[in-house]
What does this fold into?
Amino acid sequence: MTNQLALTTVQDAREALKAKPESQFTASDFYARGLAYFSESNYQSALSSFEDAVKLVDNSSTPAQLAQYLFAKGVTLGKLDKPQ
It folds into this structure.
């Protein structure tokens, strides 16, 4: 996937989420929103979304999804110069 295609995909997912109430967001919805914020260099909002995704992990989430959310959170913390 090219960078432009990936960026378009992330932005399309973010637009789709605007019609959904946040109270109905799933972990993957928060993750998608976090990716959109990250792509805009809005790292604080991205971090918040990735943290919300981690909080919503449940039995329907796979270990790979949790790893994805935690990795995204870690990368974002690095961008915010908070490697701890």
In short: The chain has four helices and no strands. Helices lie at 3-17, 27-39, 43-55, 63-79. The CA atoms of residues 62 and 68 lie 10 Å apart.
